[in-house]
Give the backbone structure.
Amino acid sequence: MTAVAVPVTGARRGPNLTYLTIELRRLLRNRRTIIFTLVMPPVFFLLFGTVDSYKTESVGHANVTAWIMISMALYGALLATTSGGASVSVERAQGWTRQLRLTPLRPATYVATKVAVAMVLGLGAVVVTAAVGMVSGVTGDTSRILASLLLAWLGSSVFAAFGLFMGYLLPSENVMQILGPVLALLSFAGGLFMPLGDGVFATIAQFVPTYGLAEIVRAPITDDGVSVWAIVNVVTWGIVFVVGAAWRFRRDTARV
Amino acid sequence: MTTTTVLDTPATGTLALDLRGLRKSFGTVRAVDGLDLAVRPGEVVAFLGPNGAGKTTTIDMLLGLAEPDEGTVQVLGLEPSAAIAAGRVSAVMQSGGLLKDLTVAETIELTASFFRGTRSPQEVMERAGIADIADRRVGKCSGGQQQRLRFALALLPDPDVIVLDEPTTGMDVEGRRDFWNALRADAARGRTIIFATHYLEEADAYADRIVLVSHGRIVADGSAAQVKSLTAGRVVSASFEGPLDEAALRALPGVQDVEVRRERVLIRTTNSDAVARHLLTATDATDLEIAARGLEDAFLALTTDSIETTGSKA
């Protein structure tokens, strides 16, 4: 071959900041997402976490109010990352992912951008809930509370994978109408909203995807430590969600 | 491998599109059934056929969205996915593919960010005739405006080939005219354009060459005039009672095909006068009707074995 026409255009390399910026702008336009992830968790915290007796009762290194704030921050982060990941379902329904296949954008960049945006929203949920908590009676060891909040944010990445998995699996345009209640149920069952005691629910809880995260995230402010079960729970569900998302993603981008 | 930057024309001798022996089935349905097509750079080709003829499946294969069961596809001498990654072929799809919550300008800016080096967003908006609605949300745009947005997106990488799949489906007359005007203005720049349509008028008005597809195969390929002549005949139909001498009808001048549907006979012919005279004078046929042949009828005729493919192989 002697002369080969070289494209004047072609695929870009590296992260795409324009994409990230536009995706964040879309996020801010979505009123429903903002209410569910940035307004609801702090409101729940104010409703359930600011009883006077909670402010004086200690869980180890902080008061019960802090315990509830951290739980709500985690709940908000889970909602945020799940809905961020699940937004692929809307984009599939609108044919956007198909349109993307007519551009040089790599599918991996698409997914990475979705996850990054989900994590930004998750961070927003954690920060807003914490900010409200700090002025509403949370007391305790600040560095331990911050460690809990950081763990809540990082841990919510597991649910970004859950959101992606569901977003690729479910055909619905409003997949969050299903996932919202599912998450609330998982949060109750996993002991995110209240301690589970020692009954049959506590046994079931150990298998629920939110259980391990709840325990790990609260560990810095309590003296309970982290059980092996909690770690096994998070790692196992993390693998299930990532493998599931990767499986559906491959099917979605495969040529038929 | 030596490389040269070629801006206007692809390397000499390279076909814009080269489809060979394409076959694609979905279950038991043969969507594309042995299709060969060669398109030279700069041609404006209409891919004309009724719904279900295999147009969209063929387009999906030439864009790399679908994998042929058999046969090969080359776009500018490249694999479809490579041609897309290089920004040398782009497409305007029938519907969907736009995010409703983005503005027109954001959609273009975002798509441009996927490529390394594109035409300016302002330029493609002007060429597609949507510069005045740059700040409008996509969800608030009419079908015609959305389609011109898709066209603007397709122009971004300044491709050598643009593929359009039924680009005016669902548009009103005005939207359709604006869209084709924008496309025609662009075609004057020497781009290769292939569009699928089921409107003969669109194919006739905007294409240099018309490829007729039916049942996943090319049944005619030629200039607009040649293809139009295929639909030139008429259909004479009449009711009859008792036996009918089909052989006598077939022997009449210009008769292409005779079909009996219960008590009614349909005769496709280029000489409707002769058929009508015969039916009214030599038979007891009643309720005679003479109708112009539509495209659907031409397709039917072309896919039966009774006549030869009349279009020349361009």
